[in-house]
From TrEMBL:
Protein family: Belongs to the hemerythrin family.
Domain Hemerythrin-like: 13-122
Single Gene Ontology MF annotation: metal ion binding
Name of the protein: Hemerythrin family non-heme iron protein
Keyword Repeat attached: no
InterPro entries per record: Haemerythrin_Fe_BS, Hemerythrin, Hemerythrin-like, Hemerythrin-like_sf, Hemerythrin_metal-bd
Tree of life domain: Bacteria
UniProt entry tagged with the keyword Cell cycle: no
Record-linked PANTHER family: BACTERIOHEMERYTHRIN
Amino acid sequence: MIQWSEAYSVHNARIDKQHQKLFEMAARAYNMAHKQITPNEMKEILSEFFEYIKEHFRDEEIYMQAIDYPELEQHKRIHTEITKTMISLIKDIKTLNEMKEKLQVIAKNWLLEHILKEDMKYERYRRSLLIASMPENGDHFAQVIESEMSTREYHYICSCPNKIHDVPYDIHQKILNGAKFRCKQCKQEITYPRR
């Protein structure tokens, strides 16, 4: 599992703290999949994870509403989809191994796709508001944000199980413009996780 980094900050202390805790909880859940545990222990972890996600989604939606995020309704639908997936996971499990397997996928994919992709959208929107509200310093702030983005790494995946490629900003931009990069191990093209 990837670790929390300031690169994932949405510059809201409450939301960032919740994201950090979700990273920790997902890592714990992910690691439990490789240990001997009882079904009750696994259900307890799932339940705690699920309850915290619901609390986080509520707070995040309040924040997005406060900044007038234009894609709030779409983001809410994604939250609903994740919640339904978690409910389904808890209800439909037949074996402990199946539970472990599904939890691994949800913990990893949820972090990669939701926090690293969807939540970064409202952070970019927040930044655009910051620049727009300071026209006399707009060029300076644009340079600061561009500099910040250029030091960020993007997490790509390939066909290798549990492998994440940390891709620097310049390579990420090349890929967005059509360049192809392959994993040295599996020889498959690396891709940016998308919903």
